[in-house]
Specification:
This protein has about 500 residues and is α+β, with helices and mostly antiparallel strands. It has 3 domains: about 160 residues; about 70 residues, no CATH class; about 160 residues, no CATH class. Helices cover about 45% and strands about 20% of the residues. It is built from 17 helices and 13 strands. The strands form 3 sheets. The chain has a 5-stranded antiparallel sheet, covered by helices on one side. Helix 3 runs antiparallel to helix 5 and helix 9 crosses helix 10.
Amino acid sequence: MIKSKVQVGLIAAGFIALGLGLTLYKAISLGLPLMPGEYREVWTVESKTSFTPTKGPVNVELRLPATLAGWVILEEHFVSSGFGFSIIEDGETSSKARWARQELERPTTLYYKMQIHRASDNNELPPMAFVKPQTPLLEPDQEAAMDRLVDRLKTQSSNTETFVLLLLQEFLRDSPDQDTVFLLDSYQEDAIMVLMDALAVADISAHQIRGIVLEDGRRRQQLSSLIEVYTDGRWRVFDPRTARAGLPKNFFIWQRSDDSILNVVGGRNSSLEFALVSNSLPAKAVVEMEQRSEQFALLDFSIYTLPVEQQGIFKGLLLIPVAALVVVIMRILVGIRTSGTFMPILIALAFIQTTLFIGLIIFLGLIGTGLWIRSYLSRLNLLLVARVATVVIVVILLMAALAIISYKLGLDQVLTVTFFPIIIVAWTIERMSILWDEDGGHEVLIQGGGSLLVAVMAYLVMSNHVVEHLTFNFPELMLSLLGVILLLGKYTGYRLSELYRFRDLAKQ
């Protein structure tokens, strides 16, 4: 019978060798860089077209984006299982993707994925021809309210640009004019259509620019709209969300016109959603990986083959084993005591969302206030379950109050308090309170301080750019981490803290 220590050693060696072998294979054969080096921010954007079919043939058309404002499409990929697929050129710069099928029985989702990169900071859009605005068809009461709104804003503006800015600000006010409220109600809260009709009534040529606000990890995102207005002999872009002029740098233009983006014939309840994830990876390596996916079977197990929604989730999940290794090293080799075995990992994940300094302030504030309230609850002699449930509710109320107060004060970073795991914070308060009653405040400071120290170290490792690059592009390294953790699990020697504790004996 092989001893357990030898078994663990063999298993750990196998995991380490397998993880390193797969990593070297992808680095050497597929050309993925082991180190980030000089990288570019590459966005993976995935559109999901969902619909429920009706009887008869199905025809789905999706207008594809053009490369504007310095953006470059590196790679495109269409999923058309069971559908006839084709790309139709629609003018010099635009095209459509068309999926067709004679009959369909169940709800279906069609995917279109692309990888984009901003090659230049040029925010200028190519010139377009001037088109005279058409007078909108309005009901008599709508027309009267629209005329009053336009006339009032014209008297307060000096040119087209100031009129547009005043119009946008009107819809962002906390208490807008009665005519504005009436128009929003009659248009069923569609502020963009009210804006477009108001500009047409004011004889200002304008159209929508629809696209995606690029935010890493976003899922089920809808198209956003900007307004492009013809003023002083050129087209200018205005953001209705902020009432500012200019094209935002994090806005990827999908379509520069008022035409429909999605047309579904033979289906109902259609929807278009987007999922986004940002990767710091050389664009050349990404393109090569996509082009050579059929040649190398191991890429079928790559994170890049997953839908973008899952890529964003795994981008964070793959950092957890790294934090687990930090906890194992600090507890087994260094000997730092923590409140809970893996609570520092959850705190470190929250720090990634909140930033370290803000996260520390929020965490210490929640724990301190929670301990004070818990000390009062202990006098009521409640049962454990009721006491923990009470602490959970109190923690939620504290987080809500902190978020509201910070919003009122304009401290947007404190709003990230919602990223702290509520149950873990509540249970930490409960455990520290029991520890305070049994062993005193000194032990609470030791374990609480140890937890924060390990969480900070885990955060520093997880937020390292090289670690993020390796874990996402080489998830096989998790096998090697598993092997290292198994080896550390058999360590029975002195911890560093014990060597310091018994330093006087070593002198003797």
